[in-house]
Amino acid sequence: MILNRKFTISLLVVMLVIIGLTMVSEAASLGDRILYFGSTGYDVRQLQTKLSHWGYNPGMVDGVYGKETEKAVINFQSDQNLRIDGFAGRETINRLLGKTTFSYAAKNLYKVNNSVEAVKASKYIMPVNQEELNLLARAVYSEARGESYQGQVAVAAVILNRVKDKEFPNTIKGVIFQPWAFTAVHDGQFWLQPNSQAMKAAKDALKGWDPSYGATFYYNPAKVTSMWIYSRPIITKIGRHYFAG
Predict the structure, then answer these.
(1) Which residues on neighbouring strands pair with residue 40, listed in sequence order?
(2) What is the pLDDT of the chain when averaged over all its residues?
(3) DSSP label at 64?
(4) What angle do CA 108, 92, 45 make, to 5 degrees?
């Protein structure tokens, strides 16, 4: 009987703790914490409501940070020239709340190699000049113009992942023109004029969106000419492309 009473008291304490933690989460206001996939609470509902007011569809306004809410945040970050990571951090939330506005004349502007595009230091994940931005867009267009927008961003991300990998050249230009690295460079399609979507995909990858999840290779199984590529572990598949590490 005593043991049962102790067990009941312990269970009540645990339940009160859980309820207390839930109430804290529910009471949190938008901006009190970083929100991301899997977050729940009143502040997530506030985020979803704000996204809806801006014209982005977060799915049900239910206080659950699911795939649709994450996608809405990514689209908002892309349109607002914020770093794309799917997290509702301070900068993203401030922009949603109207506390900050995007301006190319803001502080921390810099130019790389006399680039005509001055960018905020936090805008891109790596320095880029106009020439390399154009080359990245050409690579996207020539390699993936028939793929979905996500698939085009993923191709650009693979190139950037190679720049960061010590096994490849350390510049966008060096990666693209590495001998036999990309079919489009070899067969001349690379020099086709990229469209605005390819340019946007290049910029979104530079802002941190990586649908390839860190891949350094991609291929279309229907066009593989070297069986070696099958030795690389597959990370994800987007459209007709497999992305591998």
Answers:
(1) 64
(2) 81
(3) B
(4) 170
Dump pLDDT digits (tens) for 176-205: 998 888 989 888 899 999 999 999 999 999
Q: Which of 107, 149, 142, 114 is nearest to 128 (CA)?
A: 114
Please write the tens of the pLDDT for every residue from 90-102.
889 988 988 654 4
Count CB-CB contacts under 10 A for residue 47: 26
Look at residue 29 and give its three-state secondary structure.
coil
Neighbours of 48 (CB within 10 A): 27
Per-residue model confidence (pLDDT) at position 9: 52
* Backbone φ, ψ for residue 135 (5° rounding): -65, -40
Q: Cα separation of 125 and 205, whole Å?
A: 9
Written as six digits, the tokens of 201 are 């995909």
- At residue 22 the predicted structure's pLDDT band, cuts being 50, 70 and 90, is very low
Both structure tokens of 12: 């009540």
Distance CA 140, CA 223 (A): 17
Helix (H, G, I), strand (E, B) or coil at 244: strand
Q: Would you give the DSSP letter of residue 28?
A: P
| Res 112 pLDDT > 50 | no
Neighbours of 135 (CB within 10 A): 23
- Give the pLDDT of residue 152: 97
Tokens of 156: 């650009």
What pairs with residue 244 in β-bridges?
217, 234
Asked if residue 152 lies in contact with residue 195, where contact means CB atoms within 8 angstroms, the answer is: no
